[in-house]
Amino acid sequence: MINGISINMYLMLSTILFTIGAVGVMARRNIIILFMCIELMLNAVNLLLVAFSVLHHDSAGQVFVFFVMAVAAAEVAVGLAILSMIYRNIKSIDSDLLRNLKN
Amino acid sequence: MLGYTITQWLFGIISFLSIMFALMVVFTRNPINSVLYLVLTFFCIAAHYLLLNAQFLAVVHIAVYAGAIMVLFLFVIMLMNLNQDSEPQKTMASKLIAGIIGGLLLVVLVGALKGTEQIQLSQSGHSEIGLVKNLGRVLFHEYLFPFEIVSILLLSALVGAIMIGKKEIK
What we know:
B: Four Helix Bundle (Hemerythrin (Met), subunit A), globular
């Protein structure tokens, strides 16, 4: 099915997706969007892991993607709980308002 | 068709769609639209997994990301009643700086990866590595201990989320 595509194409695609995620983290102030951009970066890495697992005919890469998904799910669950706590306290999800540690 | 095989056409179309949807996630004002575009991006990535013959991961990806994580995001956004008007915006200067830093990151990564060898992916005789039978054998023989650790991690994340999310008892 996959014959005819070189691994460089997947490298470029993952790099672009990762960069879009990184730009999103830097350019937005909504904490929920920040979380979604982190998910995007994780997915770029997952895609590359699967591509290399197919390249080397080794299942270990796909097992690692499985673990990354589990850790991402745990991260999102705890992160959104913290986020709802922040919203309850300061009535906003603006990341620039969280500057109590400054000064 | 123009010298490309059907697989290359599929790869190009799905890649274009996933990059477009990812850009829309970042540049849409409304958080609800961002979540929906991210779901579309995840479907495109699942299509990439299918193209790479990783059927099990494609199904798990849709179930976990599009089914569980994005529903959680949508619920949180709807509970907080967020919309376009309450969306905080960064100043134009910091957005510009973010774009420049991202472009530089892209240039550095592409420059580092440009000279790598062009190896064609092929699956002659190895088309079954992404199937449940093979992955399950690897997961439960070689990676049994990490698997159990992940189960403990998920349990502790569950307990932690409930502990953090509940109201303070005075």
